């Protein structure tokens, strides 16, 4: 009952963000920020194309697991991209204030 | 946990810490040998009536005491680098826990599934129950499953702090605006204590960390009860 196999969660379920080779080092700030951006970009693109936003949920789960709650101030899957951004750009020290401008200018 | 009159490191709770302890023993032995040798030679120098007033050079011994320290340094560097790379190995965590340092307490967030977060304050000395550890106990411990790799993400909401648990070989700075990653992998269940390791104001000494490593079933029940 105490062996490692019994401890592992059942396969196939969401566990936690996997190792991301783009961010192999100790500083995971960019990992959180990148997934946050990717989620909102995905939402924007899917909504613009009138498609289902379900594939964007992966990015949401990753940044939700990695980013401290105070950095995202409770971004919800259904929140519009502008909602959380002006309140709290990630980390408070990033040029996240320009996030709205970035999203508008992001490649479509 | 630390105990009175402790001289060495705390018992290892993770494989990395076991490696670090072995490395520490190895390096400390080299240090003791060199120090004893030097002390012995000094003693000899100070307690002899023999003199040699015409020393010009000493090529042989100069060669030896140049080569030998280089060899000793290599003998220290190789295990050190081995452990350094071992600490950086890719592992696939099953859980992510975030901790934010505040003045003067830690807060913990488990957001893989539901949003579970809580603050962890030190229990003041006047409120301790008999048998509890002074300046080390907290009101809400960090409950984690044992024998599984867990990703810890450490940051701060104000000044610099540092999240340290010596028996797991962990010490990671908590820096505002930065998210530092560490990996916890415990060999056994139990309570593991640590203290803030970066000066952060008047109560820097009074914001400890307590990990409660338990089996997975208990961890699942606990996290359900806490949400």
Automatic annotation (TrEMBL), chain A:
Location in or out of the cell: Mitochondrion
According to the UniProt record, where is the region Disordered?
1-27, 80-108
In its keyword annotation, does this UniProt entry include Mitochondrion?
yes
Gene3D superfamilies with a match to the protein in the record: Cytochrome c oxidase, subunit VIb
Coiled-coil positions are none
Keywords attached to this Swiss-Prot or TrEMBL record, sorted alphabetically, are: Disulfide bond, Mitochondrion
Q: Name one Pfam family in it.
A: COX6B
Where are stretches of biased composition, namely Polar residues? 95-108
Extract the PANTHER family matched here.
Answer: CYTOCHROME C OXIDASE SUBUNIT 6B
Q: What name is this protein filed under? A: Cytochrome c oxidase subunit 6B2 isoform X1
Q: Which organism is it from?
A: Mesocricetus auratus
Gene that produces this protein: LOC101828586
Automatic annotation (TrEMBL), chain B:
Its GO CC terms are:
mitochondrial inner membrane
Q: Give cofactor(s), names only.
A: Cu cation
Localization annotation = Mitochondrion inner membrane
Q: Does the keyword ATP-binding apply?
A: no
Recorded hits in CDD domains, A to Z, give: CcO_II_C (cd13912)
Q: How is the cofactor bound?
A: Binds a copper A center.
Residues passing through the membrane, by range: 27-46, 66-85
Q: Which reaction does it catalyse?
A: 4 Fe(II)-[cytochrome c] + O2 + 8 H(+)(in) = 4 Fe(III)-[cytochrome c] + 2 H2O + 4 H(+)(out)
Which residue ranges does the record assign to the Cytochrome oxidase subunit II transmembrane region profile domain?
1-91
Provide the GO MF annotations for this entry: copper ion binding; cytochrome-c oxidase activity; oxidoreductase activity
Which keywords appear in this protein's UniProt record, sorted alphabetically? Copper, Electron transport, Magnesium, Membrane, Metal-binding, Mitochondrion, Mitochondrion inner membrane, Respiratory chain, Translocase, Transmembrane, Transmembrane helix, Transport
As for membrane topology, the entry says: Multi-pass membrane protein
Chief localization class?
mitochondrion
Record PROSITE patterns: COX2 (PS00078), COX2_CUA (PS50857), COX2_TM (PS50999)
The Cytochrome oxidase subunit II copper A binding domain sits at 92-225
Q: Which residues form a coiled coil?
A: none
GO BP: any one term: ATP synthesis coupled electron transport
Q: Name one Pfam family in it.
A: COX2_TM
Question: What is the recorded function of this protein according to its Swiss-Prot or TrEMBL entry?
Answer: Component of the cytochrome c oxidase, the last enzyme in the mitochondrial electron transport chain which drives oxidative phosphorylation. The respiratory chain contains 3 multisubunit complexes succinate dehydrogenase (complex II, CII), ubiquinol-cytochrome c oxidoreductase (cytochrome b-c1 complex, complex III, CIII) and cytochrome c oxidase (complex IV, CIV), that cooperate to transfer electrons derived from NADH and succinate to molecular oxygen, creating an electrochemical gradient over the inner membrane that drives transmembrane transport and the ATP synthase.
Q: Quote the subunit structure annotation.
A: Component of the cytochrome c oxidase (complex IV, CIV), a multisubunit enzyme composed of 14 subunits. The complex is composed of a catalytic core of 3 subunits MT-CO1, MT-CO2 and MT-CO3, encoded in the mitochondrial DNA, and 11 supernumerary subunits COX4I, COX5A, COX5B, COX6A, COX6B, COX6C, COX7A, COX7B, COX7C, COX8 and NDUFA4, which are encoded in the nuclear genome.
What does the similarity note say? Answer: Belongs to the cytochrome c oxidase subunit 2 family.
Can you say what this protein is called? Cytochrome c oxidase subunit 2
Q: What is the lineage of its organism?
A: Eukaryota, Metazoa, Chordata, Craniata, Vertebrata
